[in-house]
Amino acid sequence: MTEETGKNKKVFFSDWELKRRVAGGKDVRLPDNAIISPLSRDWLEYGTQGENRRSQAVGCGGARTEVALRIKIAEIGRRLYSLGFVPATDGNISVRLADGLVLITPSGLAKGGLTPEDITKTDMEGRLISGKKPSSEYLLHLCFYKRRPDVMAVIHAHPPLATGLASAGMALDKPLTSEMVITLGKVPLAEYATPGTTEVTDSISGLVKEHNAIMLANHGVVTCGRDLETAFHRMETVEQAAKITLVAEHLGGGTLIPPDKVKKLEEIRRRLGPAA
Fold first, then answer.
1. Number of neighbouring beta carbons within 10 Å of residue 27
2. Which of 17, 125, 137, 267 is catalytic?
3. What is the pLDDT of residues 76-125, one digit of tens each?
4. Phi and psi, residue 106, nearest 5°
5. Are 138 and 154 contacting, i.e. CB atoms less than 8 angstroms apart?
6. Per-residue confidence at 194, pLDDT binned at 50, 70, 90?
7. Among candidates 153, 222, 140, 223, which has minimal Cα distance to 183?
8. Beta strand segments in the chain, E
9. Domain boundaries along the sequence of the chain
């Protein structure tokens, strides 16, 4: 399909045509007069590293392509919303790409209705590469990426029971179940900080290296992982731990796992790795 623009013809390439060419092993280098969607241009330019970066970015070179990650962010947003962890426009989700750029949910959009095209891209300083204005909490996410090379995904949400505990000044640092110790370890409580400001990074900077989940006083929870699924599971586990803690507190505080047994569980967590 073509369009006359003065003396030059503009050639349109649909997303479907680009994917078809890659799937058929054809060259996807485009002529100077080609017109493609902004999202497709991002896929071609930034998808992954290496000689096959262009074809991978269009979805034919492995699970960690930008396309797949945009789809995954939207999926995680729906799952968080269905659990009641991100009501209205609450929460934010991000992934670090192979080239060091970051995909993050935009400001002011409900996580339950995101599409892959909605996702914003920034550099590691929060400067906009493409898409809409990034979440106001981008500094929270970048704090993890800059201090933890093993972390590739970060989720911030407001699970109600865990947020309630954080608002009551309670950390999740008691070994009440083996799952809490192995999956989370101690979940510390960061001091209150004004959302969307450098106060947030200041409040968590001393905790990020040693913890995969952090409670934010009067604010919510942030989790990280080697991928989005791991970060999501940790968010679920934090809320489950909050439920167990509340029941145990109601019944007199609960019986803690003995210290020698805790050491064995901590050894299992160490073998799994910091962001496993």
1. 9
2. 137
3. 999 999 999 999 999 999 999 988 999 999 999 999 999 999 999 999 99
4. -80, 165
5. no
6. very high
7. 223
8. 2-5, 8-12, 34-35, 92-96, 102-104, 120-122, 128-130, 153-157, 189-190, 213-216, 220-225
9. 2-60, 66-272
**Four-point Cα dihedral 91, 96, 102, 104, nearest 10:** -20
Is 137 a residue of the active site?
Answer: yes
- The amino acid occupying position 273 is G
Q: What's the CA gap between 267 and 160, in Å, rounded? A: 31
66: which 2 tokens? 């930008």
Q: Which two tokens stand for residue 87?
A: 């009501």
| Domain with residues 66-272, CATH architecture | 3-Layer(aba) Sandwich (3.40)
The residue count for the chain: 276
List pLDDT tens digits, range 44-86: 554 433 333 333 333 333 335 899 999 999 999 999 999 999 9
Q: If you write DSSP's letter for every residue of 206-257 in order, what string do you get? A: TTGGG-SEEEETTTEEEEEESSHHHHHHHHHHHHHHHHHHHHHHHTTS--PP
Close Cβ partners of 101 (under 8 Å, ≥ 6 residues apart): 46, 121, 122, 123, 124, 129
